[in-house]
Amino acid sequence: MPGDEARGEPAAGGDARSLNTGPRPAGSGILVVGYGNPLRGDDGLGSDAAALLAEDPRLRGAQVLVRHQLTPELASDFADASLVILIDVNVLDEAGAVSVRRLDQAPSSGSGSSHHASPADLAALARELWGASPAVFIVSVGAASLEVGEGLSSPVQKALLAVVEVVVAIVEEH
């Protein structure tokens, strides 16, 4: 069904991608991944932002995904993209503060497991398996609460539209 990708579900009739390693043509797509657990308060920011971005006509043609966490399987999607934008909350910034960081192309720490991977791990996998080096940006918002419960805190809810505008600006600059 259209829009299933924004909910993190494969589209009906979607193809199962084989993990063929080796060089691929340089990616030209745009990948946006909102991740986190919407049952842990502000950790739902990624899915809420991805839902808005999936409907935003300025991102027409971009692949927008929702995930609970980053997993190694996303490296294949990284390899198909020239630009990757990851959206999540963080506990370092003031609640509601939006930050943008470009991931450098340094080698990953290799600490990824078979169930969870860091942004650096995914970029390194895409580079090692497919020779791909997309530009990777991490857009995050300082969390106020990660307690069990649905819904964003007031400061994070107020930052949601700013996150959308930041993502659109990154895409337009790309």
Task: Give the key terms.
174 residues; alpha/beta; Rossmann fold; five-stranded mixed sheet; 4 helices; 5 strands
What does this protein look like?
With 174 residues, the chain is α/β, with parallel strands linked by helices. The chain has a single domain, classed as HybD-like (Rossmann fold). It is built from four helices and five strands, in the order βαβαββαβα. It has helices at 45-55, 74-79, 119-130, 154-173; strands at 29-35, 63-67, 81-95, 98-102, 135-142. A five-stranded mixed sheet has the order 2-1-3-5-4. The chain is globular.
Main β-sheet description = 5 strands, mixed
Question: What do the pLDDT scores average to?
Answer: 85
Helix count equals 4
Helix content: 25-40%
Radius of gyration: 15 Å
The sequence of SSEs as H and E is EHEHEEHEH
- Strand tally is 5
Structural class: alpha/beta
Architecture, according to CATH?
3-Layer(aba) Sandwich
The neighbouring-strand order within the major sheet is 2-1-3-5-4
| The named CATH superfamily | HybD-like
Uncertain runs are: 1-26
**Morphology:** globular
Seen as an oligomer or otherwise, the chain set is single chain
CATH topology: Rossmann fold
How many separate domains make up the residues? Answer: 1
Distance between the termini: 29 Å
- What would CATH call the class? Alpha Beta
β content, as a range?
15-25%
